[in-house]
Amino acid sequence: MARKPSPRILVVDDEPLVLQALQDSLQRRGYRVDTASTGREALEQARATMPDLIILDLLLPGMDGFEVFQTLKRDVQTRHIPIILLTGVYDSAETMHAGFQMGAAGYIIKERGPNFNAEKLAQTVEQVLEHTPAAAPAGASILIIDDDRLHQAVLQRSLVEAGFHVRLSSEGKRGMEIVQEDAPDLVLLDYRLPDTDGLQLLRTLRSSFPDMAIVFMTAYGSEEVAVEALRSGADDYLIKPFRPWHILTVVEESLEKARQRRLTRILLEELRQSNLRLRAKQQELEAEHQALQEAYRQLEQFDQLKEEWLSMMVHDLKSPIGILLSAVDLLGSDFEPQMDDEQRAVLESARRASAQLLSMMSNFLDVQRLEAGKLALIRTPLNLNELVRNAGMAVLPRAREQQVSIFFDLDRDLPVVLADEDLMERVLGNLLDNALKFTPAQGTITLFTQAGTDEVRVGVADTGEGIPAGERPRVFEKFTQLRRPGKGARGSGLGLTFCRLAVEAHGGRIWVEDNHPRGSRFIFTLPLQAPPQE
Predict the structure, then answer these.
(1) Which of 305, 336, 482, 492 is deepest in the core (most CB within 10 A)?
(2) Above 60 in pLDDT, residue 95?
(3) Rounded distance, CA 193 to CA 84, Å?
C-alpha cells in the first residue's frame, strides 16, 4: 500500500530570516515546504504545486498579502486552499476577526525578530489541516432575504454551483436574526418584504455591519429605488427578473468591494495606532531631549562657575606672585654683588620661575577675556621691526645659556601697523619661549618680518625637531601641550592659544609650518591700516 505523502505547505514572506525560521520549523515536523518571497511568486507557486496549506504574510512588497489572498480566493483552482495569515503588525482582536471574515483559516503573529513559537505554529497548522478537508470549497457565505420562492431558487442554484454557501429567509426579521447569528459575507436583500421595508432593513444592516457586502434587489422599472439603495449603503443592485450570468458578476464584485472596505478600515485603524505609537515615541524623545538640554544647561553653568573660579583664583594669585618677583629683583639688586656663582644661579632660577608663573597667569586671564570679547585693544602705530628686535634681545641671555643662536631677517621696508603693543610683545615672547623650549644646543632661532600687499608677516623659525603632523592642526587649541620627540609634554597649553586669540583680535592669522630642512616656523599676520590723521 502506497504511503500517503505528507502535507505540502507554501510559506510566503519577504524577510529571509523569517522565511527560513518558518521553513525549518515546519520541515522538522515532516511537512513538505515551498517558499516564496513576493506576491506574484506566491500565486505562481500555488497554481503550480496546489499546496495543502498556505502561510501568507500580509505585508509584502508590490502585490501585498491582501491582494494575493483575494486573487487566490477568486480563482476556482485555488479558492479551496486554506490560508493562514501571518503578520507582526495587525495584532488586535478586531483585526484577527476581520482576517477570519475575509476567509482566513488561521492567524499567526510574528514575534520580534525571526523567532517563532514553534509549538503554537505547529498547533495552528495541524488544526487547519485537520478541519479543512482537501478540495473543500472555501466560497463565501451568502444570505438571500426574499419572499419570492422562484427568485430564491434561481439565486440559490447559481450561487451554490459557483461554490458559495447559501442560506434563505423569506422575512426581514428572520433574516436579521440569521445575520446576527452567522455574520454572512453577503446579503441579497429584496426591496419588498412582508414584514419590513427593504430600504429600512438595508440601513439597519449597514449601520450594524459596516464590513458586510449587501446587494439590493428590486423589480424592473424601479431604478430610482436602486439609486436610493446605493445611497443607503448597498454595494450594488440586481434587477428582477435576473440574468443568471449577471448574478455572479454582481456578487463577486460586491464581495470584493466589501473586502476592500474591510481592509481599508483595518489599514486605517492600524495607521491610527501607528500614529499613536509614533506620537508617544515622539513625546518620549522630546522628554529625553529636554532632559539632555537641562543636563547641557547645567554643564554650561558648571563650566562657567569653574571658569569664574579659576579666573578669580588666578587673579588673586597674580598679586603675591608679583610681590615675589619684585622681592627677587630687589634681593638681586641689593645683594647680587656679594653673592657667589651658585647663589646667583639660585637667584636667577627663582627670578625666571616667578616670571614664568606670572606669564602663565596673565595668559590664562587674557585668554578668558579674549574669548569673551572683553579685552579692549589699545591700537597705536607700531614699528614691528623694532618690536621684534627687542623681543629677540630680551631672550638673548637665556639663548646663550642654552647655546642657541638668535638671528634676525627683517624687512627694511616694513610699514607701520596699528596694533596693541603690549599684546604683540607677549605674542612674540610666547613664540620665542616656545622655540627655546624645543631648540637643542647648537641650534638657531630666526626672527623675521615681511611686507605684503595688504598685510605684514612676522615669524619665529627654529631648528628643533619640528611638530608631529598629527599635532600640528591643534597646537593653538586651549590647554594643548606640544609633544616633541624626546621632549614629552611641556607648558601650560595656553601660550599658543593666547597668541591665536590676540592675533585674531587684530584681524590677523597665525599658523605653523615646517622649517626646511629642520624645525618649525610660527607665522602670524597683521593687516595694514592707514596711520591715524593728526
Answers:
(1) 482
(2) no
(3) 39
